Amino acid sequence: MTxxxxxxxxxxxxxxxxxxxxxxxxxxxxxxxxxxxFNELRRGVPRMSPALLSRRLKELETAGIVAREAxxxxxxxxxxxxxxxxRELGPLVEAFGIWGQRRIEAxxxxxxxxxxxxxxxxxxxxxxxPMPARRSVVEFVYPALPATHRRFWLIVDPELGNDLxxxxxxFEVDLYVSADLRSMTAIWLGLDTVRAAVASQRMELTxxxxxxxxxxxxxxxxxxxxxxxxxx
Length: 232
Prior knowledge:
This protein is an alpha+beta fold.
């Protein structure tokens, strides 16, 4: 499966030959997060080339971890689903995340900022319960970033689901969120809070007071945000 082999019969070594290729565990993370289509997976690994993603998916398919299937809802569209063998890797991928959250220093984690990945993760982890029972539009603005990565529109619709746009969708905005990318990432990781960011003027909230007041609750945080940092 990989170009190099440990040449060991040990199950750990054999599993590592399949799982320790670059990006493989991250692709599995995306699949456990619910991504099934190639473009969805690409949004979760924006720094991975399409060619390498295709290769890793084929390798996982060969290993019996992933199955490629025709979409049940859209003819001609292919989807990637974890097999029974792949689903057994859930605790392993979760353990990677828990260990990383606990043991990697916060400053080191926050050196790797990626606004596209952050917004994609926030969109799929939203807690819509405290949000109004109607369509809500939240515009996120990152003033320090280049124009092509500065604005995102998060659309939450009880009937149509959640969507994320980089082009103005034309809807009236309910809440404007202006922040620096480092602070927003720290909040998503559970290392900071909306209240603290607003108090220190690293974040500005303008618009619907209900959405602003409940932002910490509805904001899509990392599934590992609840884990306490143990690294200094």
